[in-house]
Design goal:
Helix content is 8%, strand content 39%. By secondary structure, it is mainly beta.
Length: 186
């Protein structure tokens, strides 16, 4: 696997090694030893133990996010799309970061097979670009309903270039707060 740094320190694109032949292809989607070694090679802290896997299926135009869990239940996430495609967005919520309040967005798809490592301290969301988009993610912390928080997907302060303006939101995401009211990480 190859890790590629982004404009947000600590956030990395994970490019799995794909082995293809006349039968199709094979990829090792996760290997803890290789992943931790690649993070250390970039000078980043280890991810730690993944304790929960999540899988969602969304119709085209469904936007989920921008979600995060507050301390002490913050989560790191390793995310990928295994069917369909999504525009994935991450927002830096670390007050001490030089990129605090900035976002990063990219397409994740079954075709490009890319993943994102999102350490604690970031909000995360995605917009399904196709029907039947299957989104998988591993987390370093268990879901805790009392610690969950959400930032408004179209907060003008963030100015995220979502590829669609007409989106389908959950009631929870419709009631999200702006960045100015978010609880930040140190």
């Amino acid at each position: 696997m190859k890790l590629i740094s982004t404009n947000l320190p600590g956030l990395v694109i994970v490019e799995p090694r794909i082995y293809g032949d006349s039968r199709g292809w094979f990829a090792e989607s996760f290997n803890a030893d290789r992943f931790e070694a690649a993070l250390v090679e970039l000078g980043l802290p280890p991810a730690g133990l993944f304790v929960q896997d999540n899988h969602s299926c969304s119709h085209k135009g469904v936007l989920r996010g921008l979600h995060y869990q507050k301390s002490p239940h913050a989560q790191g996430k390793l995310v990928r799309v295994v069917q369909g495609s999504a525009f994935d967005v991450v927002v830096d919520l670390r007050k001490s970061s030089p990129t605090f309040g900035q976002s990063f967005g990219m397409d994740l798809s079954a075709q490009n097979r890319l993943m994102l490592w999102i350490p604690e301290g970031f909000a995360h969301g995605f917009l399904a670009l196709e029907d039947n988009t299957h989104f998988l993610y591993k987390t370093t912390g268990y879901y805790n309903q009392l610690s969950e928080a959400c930032i408004l997907w179209n907060d003008p302060e963030l100015n995220i270039p979502w590829p669609m303006r007409e989106v389908v939101l959950s009631p929870k995401d419709e009631q999200a707060t702006g960045l100015d009211l978010a609880e930040f990480f140190p």
